[in-house]
Design goal:
This protein has strands spanning about 1-5, 10, 35-45, 50-60, 75-80, 85-90, 115-125, 135, 140-145, 150, 170, 175-180, 190, 210, 220, 225-235, 240-250, 255-265, 270-275, 285-300, 305-320, 325-330, 340-345, 355-365, 370-375, 385. Strands 1-2-6-5-4-3-8 form a 7-stranded mixed beta sheet, with no helix packed on it. Strands 7-9-12-13 form a 4-stranded antiparallel beta sheet, with no helix packed on it. About 0% of the residues lie in helices and about 45% in strands. A hairpin with a 5-residue loop joins strand 25 (about 370-375) and strand 26 (about 385). With about 375 residues, it is mainly β. It has no helices and 26 strands.
Length: about 375
């Protein structure tokens, strides 16, 4: 790593490696311990050549030792001219609890869901296309957060896991929120319908019945232990304006699964249940999690991306060896999904991503190719993008 003249941190891809972003060497940086969940936009600039890339991601420093064993903590931002060599923004939002972040811990409302740690789900400019985004408009950041509430760790362990007694975990009952921004750096939280400010919370039967679009249709929604890693797809001319896919753990079976909800305004979502769950004998038999969903597009003879039928989901499958790999599923309507199998495996033994790969993020390029950013983990638990 090296520092640029304006005080930002420049991160070069390692020689012989596809790493583009690693934890900061500065112990005071918000991402000095771990980082993950990249979400990348590519902007078309009028009157200038080329594009500009922006990556939002979450990171953690050593001060959040009480948070769950994840890479969540606070959310920051990096920029690039080519999508490969990145400069981390050292000056974030002045309203947050750390100077180098776009969204930090909620220190203003102690009763809210995001006081202990936050993690990135997705950032949208709803009226833009996924190939090239025109700058301007309002950014919608969907994120998850956990409070300082303690729960028994066995509540979140598989049913056949060894007994860990009364050991506790803090902030694991995550919920989902949304924040808005006009510049992509300073975000303001939007208060949801839940008393904690969240827009999507784990379902419990005490919350009552869940109905579909037709209020007479009662849906069979399984109880959930957390809601996290939201990925939201804006639909143009569809039956729902926004589809949200999120990772959860089912209370009864302790399965890691992907569920979804629908919305007309991108803030108030109605649950629709699980759309993807583990399948025995496959690389996701121990869990499905952390997905990205995008409408299919074709690259035409005029050198442009155009919308085509259906949706593609890339998600993490947890195999019997406990390692995460990137899987694929396809859908015609965004509701019902068919798995397509493994699309991206872990690195070779000794490589930086031998311990697992996940949190995929896709962008389409002008030459008709597609680029995927992902989080990798080494055998000793270190993470990079």
């Amino acid at each position: 790593m090296s520092s640029s003249g304006d005080g930002d941190t420049k991160v070069e891809a390692s020689i012989g490696s596809n790493v583009v972003l690693a934890p900061s060497e500065d112990a005071g940086a918000f991402d000095s311990l771990k980082l993950g969940s990249p979400r990348v936009h590519r902007y078309s600039r009028e009157g200038s050549e080329g594009s500009e890339y922006i990556m939002w991601y979450h990171g953690r420093d050593a001060s959040l030792s009480d948070a769950p064993p994840l890479s969540t903590g606070r959310i920051g931002k990096a920029t690039s001219r080519n999508g490969l060599h990145w400069i981390k923004e050292k000056q974030g939002s002045e309203s947050e609890d750390a100077s180098d972040v776009s969204l930090g811990l909620n220190k203003e409302s102690w009763w809210c869901f995001d006081t202990g740690h936050v993690g990135l789900g997705q950032v949208l400019l709803p009226m833009s296309l996924p190939s090239v985004i025109s700058e301007g408009g309002v950014y919608m950041m969907y994120y998850m957060g956990g409070s300082l509430e303690e729960n028994e760790i066995m509540e979140f362990m598989p049913n056949d896991a060894p007994d860990m007694g009364d050991k506790k975990v803090t902030g694991m009952k995550m919920k989902i929120g949304v924040a808005l921004s006009q510049d992509g750096t300073t975000f303001g939280r939007i208060e949801g319908d839940d008393p904690t400010g969240a827009i999507m919370v784990p379902y419990d039967k005490s919350m009552g019945k869940v109905t579909g679009k037709n209020k007479m249709d009662v849906l069979d929604i399984e109880e959930e232990l957390y809601c996290g890693w939201p990925d939201v797809v804006p639909i143009i001319d569809g039956k729902d304006d926004f589809l949200m896919y999120y990772s959860t753990m089912l209370k009864d079976t302790k399965e890691k699964a992907i569920a979804f909800g629908v919305s007309k305004n991108g803030v108030s979502f109605g649950k629709r249940g699980v759309c993807l769950r583990p399948e025995a004998g496959t690389p996701d038999e121990k869990g499905c999690a952390r997905c990205t969903v995008f409408e299919n597009q074709e690259y035409n003879e005029n050198g442009r991306w155009t919308k085509s039928e259906g949706f593609t989901m890339l998600y993490e499958g947890v195999a019997d060896d406990g390692k995460h790999r990137i899987m694929k599923a396809e859908s015609k309507d965004g509701y019902t999904w068919t798995k397509s199998g493994l699309v991206f495996d872990i690195g070779e033994e000794g490589k930086w991503d031998y311990g697992g790969v996940g949190s995929p993020s896709i962008i389409r390029l002008d030459d008709g190719s597609t680029r995927m950013y992902y989080t990798g983990q080494s055998a000793d638990g270190k993470t990079a993008i």
